[in-house]
Amino acid sequence: MYESGSTIDFCAQDLEREILDRFRHTVDILPSDCKIFREPWDSSTIVCLDFSLCPYQLEIVKEKVAILIDGAKQLHLGKSIVFRYNNQLKAFRQVP
Prior knowledge:
Elements: H1 12-27, E1 35-41, E2 44-50, H2 58-62, H3 65-75, E3 80-85, E4 88-94
Parallel strand pairs: 2-3
Antiparallel strand pairs: 1-2, 3-4
């Protein structure tokens, strides 16, 4: 809890981790082994989901993409969601 007169030592990485943790909690369909990160693409940001540690879950999660899109919109995470397996792009969905 923030107290008046105290300082909070957050860096950009801490804030990024916090928002991605909120995304994981909000959507509640991602396996714990799925890596979540964001990266810039052209002039926007995308949400990357890497299923390299849980490839068997990729198709299951892709079927529920509407939940991911709603979560990304709610938290203003980016313009698109990318599904990856290691460095291979497996799917791409726009966030309207």
